[in-house]
Amino acid sequence: MLLKICRCGKTVPMEQGMCEACNVVAEERRKQRHRDYKAKRTDTDNQKFYNSKPWRVTRARVKDRDNGLCQLCWSENKVKPMNTVHHIIPLEENDRLSLVRSNLISLCEKCHQKVHKLYDVRTEKFNIQKKLRSLIG
After folding, report:
1. Which residues lie below 8 Å from residue 118, measured CB to CB, with a gap of 6+?
2. What is the residue range of 8's domain?
3. Which of 13, 56, 72, 84 has CB atoms 3.0–4.6 Å from 112's, for a disulfide?
4. Kind of pairing, strands 3-5 and 11-13?
């Protein structure tokens, strides 16, 4: 059995991710971030999409494909659980790719934020999209 060190310093099984105490704290933070995020969203069409059964099924399949791990972290030899399935080509640019698994990748929150910051710079957007595609190809 592979072990890892939790953020609090305890040793836990790799598949567990973190100790129970840290897991409770992380889950509450995740829920609060999600509440804050939903409160700021105004695009009801996107909200309907992300709550749809086809999206939930596709998201679960991508998560399974990526073993529940952030693929950017994994490419840098880091093991970090994913919490977001990211559209490489955003919905706003091509909604026909919304459920295409080759356009989706598992990311942790930190990498997801980093990717979106890079999307703001045209040349960086192209480069990061190319890298993301290579990680799932």
Report:
1. 124, 125, 127, 128
2. 1-40
3. 84
4. antiparallel
How far is the CA of 110 from the CAs of 33, 50, 54, 83, 86, in angstroms? 13, 20, 26, 10, 12
Tokens 């190319």 — which residue?
130
Residue-wise pLDDT for 42-52, tens only, equals 667 778 899 99
pLDDT at 36: 85
Sort 82 into a burial class: Cβ within 10 Å, 0-12 / 13-18 / 19+: buried
Instruction: Note whether 63 and 115 are same-domain residues.
Output: yes
Both tokens of residue 96?
């026909």
Q: What phi-psi label fits residue 104: left (phi over 0), alpha (psi between -120 and 50 degrees) or beta?
A: beta
State if pTM tops 0.90: no
Same domain, 129 and 70: yes
* End-to-end Cα separation, the chain, in angstroms: 29
- When divided into structural domains, the chain yields a total of 2
The tens digit of pLDDT for each residue in 94-114 reads 999 999 999 999 999 999 999
